[in-house]
Amino acid sequence: MTFFRQRWLAMVGLLLGYIAIEWIEYGREQLLAGIEPLDPSVGLAFAALLLGGPSFLPVVVIGEIGAAMFRSGGQIPAMTALLPALSVGFSWGIAALVLRRFANLRLAGQHNLVLLIVAAAAASLGTAAGDAASFWLAPEQHDGAVTQVLTRAWIGDMIGAMVVTPLLLVMRPPLPLPSRAAAIEATIQGAVALTMLWLLFTLPAAAEWQLYDLLVLPSIWAAARFGVRGAVVINIVLQIGMVAAFVMVVKDADAVTAYQFRMLILTLSTLFLGVAVTERRSVEDTLRRRQDQLDRCARLSMAGEMAAALAHELNQPLSAALTYSRTAQRLLDSPGGDPTKLRAAMNGAATQAERAGMIIRTLREFIGRGELNRQPQSLPTLVRDSLALLELDYQRAGIRVEAVLDRTLPPVLVDAVQVQQVLLNLLRNAIEAMEPSSVPRRLVTVVARPIDPGTVTVEVADSGPGLDQDLVARLFQPFSTTKAAGMGLGLAICRTIIEAHGGRLWLAGNSPGGCSFRFTLPVVSGTKTGGQA
Ligand code: ADP
Q1: Does the keyword Secreted apply (predicted)?
Q2: What sections of 334-466 are H helices per DSSP?
Q3: What percent of the chain has pLDDT over 90?
Q4: What is the Å distance from ligand 1's center to 509 Cα?
Q5: What is the phi-psi region of residue 179: left when phi exceeds 0, alpha when psi lies from -120 to 50, beta otherwise?
Q6: With contact defined as beta carbons under 8 Å apart, do 326 and 396 qualify?
Q7: Looking at residue 176, what is its pLDDT?
Q8: Cα 435 versus chain centre, distance
Q9: Are strands 412-414 and 505-511 parallel, antiparallel or unpaired?
Q10: Which end of the chain is more exposed for a tag (fewer CB within 10 A), N or C?
Q11: How far apart are CA 141 and CA 432, in angstroms?
């Protein structure tokens, strides 16, 4: 229902447009020796046929007949006006049909503008042919030769179509409201355009100095800044100004035709520039939107990885705290439980809970600052503390631990919680590898020694079954695991931490008798390492 109402309203609007244009132009043609420098009704009709489709054709024909009769002051009968009106309807109707099928009517992209220009040029030729026929039928109504009449009719229609049609195609709702700054800039552009027109038609030497090019400035400015919308608006402003100047100043039909040819070139160039600018902006917008989507995806996946990493890191201290608490519970339940053992178990649980808190704090700080809290640390202390945290696990699994810590080890410049994280991950992996009953000899060795004046190396080796060859290639990739409850993040996190410290982590040895991991760390600058590996 609304659709039909809108359609009817548009048809009435088209007829009113015809009436308004004829009323404005009434009598002006006489001033220009019978030529019509611009036919906006053609542009209006073309836009209506493009947007509304063939159902607007009868309205266009009626409008054309009415306009011709009005122009002649009722001198020509409707039947004589019918032939040119049909030629307008036929030519522009076919052009509109083709464009509706093949072109984007918002002129998105250069090829759509080219299609519009070609279609309009062909249609205005068709109309001009109709005019030529009327010339042949009633030569006394025209001044000049047939070629002249044809050329003037063609340029008038073409300019009308190129100025009015793109304006109606592009400035359709929804239109965004311009910002204050844009509105001010557009007003200045309009003022500059009118000033240039005034100069062009009032300066005595304007023709001699070829000042026509003055109009290029506001055109390019508007198209470059506001794209196709700027182009269509500046084109109509300049065209209205031109027609006013023709009527008031030029009054010479040949000069008007020459101006109109230059105006057509300027109008088309401005449209091309405007379409190119809008096209580039829309490509930039699309790219920006894609980038935003990618960023959002990256952030989401980072958040997912962070959550997985946090779960992985917290798992160990929390399960250790649970084991200590259960031990404490058992000691409390058993009659005559040893208070020293009870205190040790409670202490163990508290230490593990503190450690969980520290992991969360470190991660939060890392996310907040994006950097590590690096302080000079004693490597032997870090190793011993890590071993102590896992003592219960070693004892339960019957694993012997050997730590070879070089006495000459200089302090390392590291984030203690993070490096302990690495040690705990490697040690825990070693324990888990040796847990199956098939492993007869259970030994973990930690060796730390300097390798060059600025670096120390730490090796964690075990006597477990070693790694499968196909796992070795993707060992440090996230989510590579062979454990039922494993997340496959431990080694990936370890490598990230060590690399963030400027070191390296790698699989140093792998055999059925066990495997070893090695990593390097930087020493505090100014301190010397005591030896070579
Ligand atoms: P997760 O321990 O959660 O599986 P990791 O990244 O720490 O994740 O380890 C990945 C895999 O590497 C483990 O599932 C295990 O198969 C293997 N692995 C790591 N360390 C050892 C080791 N010392 N001995 C044998 N296999 C190991």
Answers
A1: no
A2: 339-369, 379-389, 391-397, 416-434
A3: 39
A4: 14
A5: beta
A6: no
A7: 82
A8: 52
A9: unpaired
A10: N
A11: 106
pLDDT at residue 477 is higher than 70: yes
What is the average per-residue pLDDT within 401-415? 90
Q: How far is Cα 402 from Cα 443, in angstroms, rounded to an integer?
A: 8
**How many angstroms separate the alpha carbon of residue 312 from the centre of ligand 1?**
13
Say which residue, 110 or 209, is predicted with more confidence: 110
Q: What are phi and psi of 378, to 5 degrees?
A: -90, 120
Q: State the pLDDT confidence band at 134, using cuts at 50, 70 and 90.
A: low
Quickly count: other Cβ atoms within 10 Å of residue 386's Cβ. Answer: 22
Question: Cβ(201)–Cβ(256) under 8 Å?
Answer: no
360/55 Cα distance (integer angstroms): 70
Question: Which residue among 310, 314, 399, 429 is best mutated to probe the pocket of ligand 1, counting the most ligand atoms within 8 A of its Cβ?
Answer: 429
Q: How many CA atoms lie within 13 A of 89 on its CB side?
A: 18
Quick one: DSSP state of residue 4?
Answer: H
Q: What whole-number distance in Å separates Cα of residue 40 and Cα of residue 14?
A: 12
* Separation of alpha carbons 262 and 126, rounded Å: 22
Question: Omega before 174 cis (within 30°)?
Answer: yes
Q: Give the C-alpha separation, 241 to 198, whole Å.
A: 9
Q: Does an H or E element contain 519, and which?
A: strand 514-522
Residue of 481, 487, 489, 516 to mutate, ligand 1, most atoms within 8 A of C-beta: 481
Block residue for tokens 């039947």: 79
The model carries a pTM of 0.57
d(CA 146, CA 237): 31
pLDDT digits (tens, 9 = 90+) for 370-405: 567 789 999 999 999 889 888 888 888 899 999 999
Alpha-helical segments (H) within 53-176? 57-71, 78-102, 110-137, 146-170
Taking only the tens place, the pLDDT of each residue in 147-160 is: 777 888 888 889 98
The CA-based dihedral angle spanning residues 172, 158, 135, 75, taken in that order and rounded to the nearest 10 degrees = 30
Spatial distance between the Cα atoms of 208 and 253, rounded to a whole number of angstroms: 19
| Rounded Cα gap, residues 117 and 94, in angstroms | 14
Q: Are strands 455-462 and 412-414 parallel, antiparallel or unpaired?
A: unpaired
Determine which residue's CA is closest to atom 9 belonging to ligand 1.
488
Place of tokens 């965004």: 176
Query: Is the torsion defined by CA of 222, 224, 230, 235 positive or negative?
Result: positive
Enumerate residues lining ligand 1, CB below 6 A. Answer: 425, 429-430, 433, 462, 464, 467, 471, 475, 480-483, 486-492, 515
Name the phi and psi angles at 174, rounded to 5.
Answer: -85, 130
| Cα 429 to averaged position of ligand 1 atoms, centre (Å) | 6
Q: Which of 89, 103, 109, 5 is nearest to 51 (CA)?
A: 103
User: DSSP assignment, residue 213?
Assistant: G
The reported pLDDT for the residue numbered 10 is 85
d(CA 16, CA 19): 5
| C-alpha 453 to ligand 1 mean position (Å) | 32
**Token code pair at residue 406:** 């070089």
